[in-house]
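pasting for ref
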Amino acid sequence: MKLSPRFLRLLFGYCINKLSLILYYLVLKHLPPTYYPGGKLIKQFRFQCCKRLFRSCGQNVTIETNAFIPFHKVDIGDNSGIGLNARLGSVRIGSNVMMGPDVLILSRNHNYSRVNIPLKYQGNAEEQPVTIEDDVWIGARVIILPGVHINKGVIIGAGSVVTKNIPKYSIAVGNPARIMRMRG
């Protein structure tokens, strides 16, 4: 039985993707941050491995230490970064996005509508991807809830919990995040 070249390419790509996933979670995830000595080399190792984990990936992307990246659920643009200890759900990240440490981006929640069934048995709600447009700065320990859209040029202050969409060029802080002022 002869295998078609298309099938062999798909199989090879699948194997490379799975090897990248294993290599990232066993080794590269645990290397020092990019600001340590040798950081440029570490950045390149992580980028070359992780670009296979993303659904789509721009150029010059930085992935810091201990970031959790779900397989094929993240789109990321050019010159963007995923911060130290970040945990991502399904998300589209634009270009030139800066992310502080310990950012949590959720795309799924639990069902909770039925009172006659314990919460732990109600399962998960449908996934609601998060969108982060270009030129956004997300501070340390920000939590972004499912389905939120963060527009272009937004700054989100450290420790904020983003529960609603944020308009262009706003500065939002707090729990829940509120718009404090507009940029420019």
